[in-house]
Each structure stands twice: as structure tokens, then as C-alpha cells.
Write a structure and sequence with these properties.
8 strands; alpha/beta; 15 helices; 359 residues
Length: 359
């Protein structure tokens, strides 16, 4: 974790682009959905790199202009209130591209965050590799598709040389964020078995140098969902099961998490916090003291939720319909003001985490 003088400041102290790191890099962002625009805000806020963006949607510039201001810190005001991105364009920091080839041809880093679809990603990388330099770093911000699968199709591709195929596998790794990445510290760096250690090291050092906020964490090997999403999705599965079975409402479950696991895990992860539960015997004492209760809950989960499948009905009817209806009733569809409120809360939580670590 950073030991800079004021690591909890979000956003970082105001500075001109020349004082920010990575001015030598040209980043190509492929895919400008919620994650892509959030990464765009991260790069524009914490680096002075040139960023080229590409997405096939015809209203790309208008789409980015409507969302990007929500993600940028107030210390980066626009020079044109009617077009909040014009300042970045006029300074050369931001380029809108009409083709993938144009976006990547001079990029030192290509960062893909398209749909969670293996065929789409394989097609995208095949096109990228026809235009990008063989020295460029290749990152995918997928939520669960391993780097090795994204390039597995290259073994049967004759349009690329053997050297290009081998080099691509050595350079590609997953940079998995937690949404929204411009605020959430975690960046899971997940190499494939073919990824070179130097590629992993570059990604880690890139984010450490760029931002006192972000915490790039190398993951030792590929697994479905990586680490953060495995934990998150298993908890979400149990949450959906509890709501579908009528144990509690969606809104009450959210409040239970906010009043218990949320604050606790903001201070320390499950191992660190349960280590306190065993007194002077730590985690060993904790497991002995309430191991029976843990076992009962795990057994009940197997009985009640163990068969709870994403594409099947839960007890009492279709669980998806129950969950969707309750969440819509409780929260509606997120609006701009909801995004701002979320981001203010996340800034404060992360700020407190940093303050605790410094003391």
C-alpha cells in the first residue's frame, strides 16, 4: 500500500497532466460500457497517457460525454460546460476512433472490456493482433473469462505467424476490477500459464505508480471468477436463495449486510476478522468455538441452496422474478444522482480504510 503523504485523498491533489505518470504511454480502450468509461476516468485522472477509445456504438462520443463527468473528480473541470470532454480532446489526451485498427495501431497498452462473451473476445483479439505492435501490453478487464481461453483459438489460426501467436499469449493477462474501477481499489491481475512474469510486473507497477488508491494484487493461477467474484457471487447466490424462499426481503438483506459484513469487511477480510473471534488462540480458537454452527450452516446451505441453480426455479416459483421485482420496488433503476451518492459513499469508506492503515 502506498506511503505517499496523503494517500487517502480522493481525488488526488490537483496537478497538471505533465506532473502525472505514464505520459509516454498510449492506451487503447476497447469497449466503453460502464467498466470501460470508469477505466477511462481512472486513466484521465491518475495518468497523463494518451487514451484512444473505440466502441462500435454510433453515439459513442455522446454516450461518453453523458457518463464520464459523473466519474471524474471535481478537480478536473471541463473547459466547455456544453461538452465535458472537449478539454481532454483539445489537449490530445483523448481520441475517439471509428475503427479498432486506428485505436490500437500506436498503442503501448490495449485494454479490452467488451461483453462477457468468449467468441466476442477471441474475435476482438484476432483483430487487435493484426494491427498492434508486438511490444504492446494486452489487458482484458473481464469478470470471469481467463486469458488462456481468450487466446486459445490462436492455435488454429493461420492468418497470424507463430511468433505473433506465441507473443500474444505471453503478453495477455486479466486486469479484473471491482465496479467502479475509478474508485474501487482492487485490481486482480490474473496471468495465464503462458503470461510472462515481466508482463504481470509491468501491470502491477503501472497501477502502483499511477494511483495511491488502487491495489493491484497478482493472482497465482486462473480459476473461474478469479477471487473477488467467486466470493461475491457465492454470497449473492445465498442472498437470492434467502429472498426467493421468503426468509427476508431484498431490501432487508441489503441492510443486514450494510449493518454487519459491510463495515466488518471494510476493516479486514474474513480471515483477519474471524481471527479476532478466537481470542488469544486466533483462528484456531474461532473454528473450535463455533465450528459446530459453521458446519450446520454449510449443511443447511447444501440442503436449501446447494441445488439453487442460476437457470432453474427456486423454491416457491422462479427466483429471478422474485428478486427482480423486489429490487425494482426497493430501488428502481439507478439514476445519475444515485451514481453520485454511491461514489461519495465509496470515497468515504476507502478514505477511512486508508486512514486506519496509516495509523
Amino acid at each position: 500500500m502506498s506511503t505517499t503523504e496523503n494517500p487517502s485523498s480522493l481525488p488526488p491533489p490537483s496537478s497538471t497532466p505533465k506532473t502525472l505518470p505514464h505520459g509516454e504511454h498510449h492506451i487503447a480502450l476497447i469497449g466503453l460500457g460502464a467498466i470501460g468509461i470508469s477505466f477511462l476516468a481512472l486513466h484521465l485522472t491518475y495518468t497523463s497517457a494518451t487514451v484512444s477509445v473505440y466502441d462500435p456504438r454510433p453515439d459513442l462520443r455522446e454516450h461518453v460525454a453523458s457518463i464520464l463527468p459523473l466519474y471524474l473528480p471535481e478537480s478536473k473541470p471541463s473547459t466547455n460546460a456544453s461538452d465535458p470532454i472537449v478539454g481532454f480532446i483539445s489537449s490530445g489526451r483523448l481520441r475517439f476512433c471509428t475503427s479498432l485498427a486506428d485505436a490500437v495501431h500506436s498503442a503501448t497498452i490495449v485494454q479490452e472490456q467488451g461483453p462477457e462473451n468468449l467468441a466476442f473476445k477471441q474475435k476482438t483479439w484476432s483483430e487487435v493482433l493484426r494491427h498492434v505492435s508486438e511490444g504492446s501490453h494486452l489487458w482484458s478487464s473481464t469478470s470471469g473469462i481467463p486469458a488462456s481461453e481468450q487466446l486459445a483459438h490462436l492455435d488454429s489460426t493461420s492468418s497470424l505467424s507463430e511468433g505473433t501467436r506465441k507473443s500474444a499469449k505471453e503478453r495477455l493477462l486479466v486486469v479484473h476490477p471491482f465496479n467502479p474501477p475509478h474508485l474501487m481499489p482492487l485490481l486482480e491481475l490474473v496471468p495465464s500459464p503462458s503470461t510472462l512474469p515481466s508482463a504481470l510486473k509491468f501491470a502491477s507497477e503501472f497501477f502502483k505508480l499511477a494511483s495511491p488508491l488502487h491495489r493491484p494484487i497478482p493472482i497465482a493461477r486462473e480459476t473461474k471468477g478469479f477471487v473477488a467474484n467467486r466470493l461475491s457471487f457465492i454470497l449473492f447466490r445465498e442472498a437470492c436463495s434467502l429472498v426467493a424462499r421468503g426468509v427476508c426481503s431484498a431490501a432487508d438483506l441489503d441492510e443486514i449486510v450494510r449493518a454487519s459484513l459491510g463495515p466488518r469487511w471494510a476493516v479486514g477480510g474474513p480471515f483477519k476478522m474471524y481471527n479476532f473471534g478466537g481470542g488469544d488462540r486466533g483462528i484456531e480458537g474461532f473454528l473450535e468455538n463455533i465450528g459446530g454452527s459453521i458446519g450446520e450452516v454449510w449443511a443447511d446451505n447444501d440442503a436449501q441452496g446447494g441445488g439453487f441453480k442460476f437457470d432453474e426455479e427456486g423454491e416457491g416459483g422462479k427466483w429471478k422474478g422474485t428478486v427482480v421485482e423486489q429490487v425494482r420496488q426497493a430501488y428502481g433503476v439507478p439514476r445519475s444522482e444515485d451514481v453520485r451518492k454511491r461514489d461519495r459513499a465509496l470515497r468515504e469508506v476507502v478514505k477511512v480504510q486508508e486512514e486506519i492503515e496509516r495509523k
